[in-house]
Design a protein that fits this description.
The chain has 15 helices and 10 strands. It has 466 residues and is of the alpha/beta class. β5, α5 and β6 form a beta-alpha-beta unit. The termini are far apart. The relative contact order is 0.12. One of its GO terms (biological process) is negative regulation of gene expression via chromosomal CpG island methylation. This is DNA (cytosine-5-)-methyltransferase. InterPro entries: C5-Methyltransferase (IPR050390), C5_MeTfrase (IPR001525), SAM-dependent_MTases_sf (IPR029063).
Length: 466
Amino acid sequence: MDGILLSATKVAYKLKVSEQYARKLMRDGKIKSEQVGKSWVTKEDNYKDYINSGEFLVNPDDKIRPSHEIPEIVALSFFSGAQGLDYGFSKTCVKPILACEINKDARSSILANDSDIGLIGDIWDATPERIYEYANLPMGYPVDIIIGGPNCQPMSTAGKRKGFADIRGEAFIRYIDVIEEIRPKYFILENVRGLLSVEAIFDDTNDKPVKGGVLHYTLNRFEKMGYAVSFQLYNAANFGAPQGRERIILLGKLGTEKLPYLTPTHSENGEYGLPKWRTLRDAIGDIQKGIHHYVDIPKGRKDWYTKIPEGGNWRSLSLEDQKKAMGNAYNSSGGKSGFFRRLDFNKVSPTLLTNPLMKATDLVHPTELRPLSIEEYSRIQGFPDDWHFCGKIVEQYRQIGNAVPTQLGEAIGRTIMADIRGKRLPQYEGFKFSRYKNTDEISFKSDYQKWTKDAMSKNLQMSLTI
C-alpha cells in the first residue's frame, strides 16, 4: 500500500473515537483498508474519502473566541443546539459570544454558521474560569445576559426520586448553578410545558412528591440569588412563527423589578388589531419548486397517504382501510389525530419534532408523497435559507426539531433590549398567550400551595388508614 499510512490508533485519534470502533470501520470496509498481520492500516487518502463522504462527522474542538473586542452587551449561550433561540435573539438584541453545546452535529452547525463565536462542550466542564477563557473575556467581567434551554428529558423522572438531593447531576440544575456563578444581569430559561407540573420530593413533604416541585425549587433558587422572575407559557404562533409550538419562558433580572411578559406580534384571529397567525403556506409556499432533502415514508405506510387529502389523517380513510392502516392502534384510547397526518397549507404547522415520521405525530407534506423536508423544517422554525445544518439528514431533523422558533427568540430579545434602554413595549391586557390557563408565575405560586396541601393531605390519610 503506497502513500502515507494510518494505523487504527491514528484513525481513532483523528475521528475522536475508540480504537476498537476505528478498527471496526476499517475491517468493515467503511474506510478502505488492508490487514497487515494482526493490524489494520489505511492510506491518508482513504481516510479523507471517508470523511468527505459525510458518513461520519468529527466532533470539532472547543474554541476560544478569536476576537479580543468586547461588545457593548455581553451574552452567553448554553444548550445552544442549532441556535434557534440565539439567532432570533441576535436579530433584536445581541449575538452571543460563546456557545455551550455537547452534541457534535450541533457543534459543527454552530461553527459553520458563526466563525467568530467561542465554543465549549459539556456544561459540567463549564467552570467560570473556562467560560471566561473561551468567551475571551477578562475574568470577572460583567456578563449581561445568559441564554439557555437546558435539556428537560431527565427531569420527567424527578418525581420518582428522593427529591433534589438525588438529581444534582441533572444538566437542568447545572444551568441554574452556572447562572449563580456568573451572575448575569438577565437570564433566560426556556423549557417545555411539562416543567410547570414536574413533581419533586422535599424534606418538608414527608417523602411525598409535590406537583410543580421542580419549578418551585427553581424559583426559590433564583429568588435567593437576588433575581426577580416572570414566566409564561407562550405559543410561538403569537410571535410570528407559522407553528403552534408552546414553550415556557422564564425571564430573570437582578433586583426586585420583574420583566414584563413578551409582546405578541400576531393573534389567532386578528384580536387586538394584530395580524392573524401565519400559515404553513406563508412559510414554505415560495420554495415548493426548489430542491428538497427528506427521509422516505416507509413502504408499508406510503400507499395509505395516496388516499388522504390535505389536512386529513387516518380518519379520512374508509372504515375498512382505517382498521388496516392503524392495526392495533385503531382500538387504543387517547388522541390519535397525528396518525397518517397530512398538514394543511392554510393552517399553522403542528409542533415540529425530531423526526417527521413518528407514527403518532406524522408531519407529512400537504399534497406530496413525502414528509416535510429539511428546507421546510428550517423555514417553519424561522431560520434563514442559508443557515447550515451539519450531520446526516436524521441529525439535521433532530437539530431543527429541537430548536426554539427564532421568532420567539426575537420577542425575548425585544423585551430585554427595551428594558436595557429604559423603554416599555406594548402590553395587551387579557391576551391569551397559549391554550392553557394559569401558566404564569403568579398563578403558579397559588397553585403550588394547593398542590402541597393536597400531597400532605394524602399522606395524612394514608397514615390514618395504616
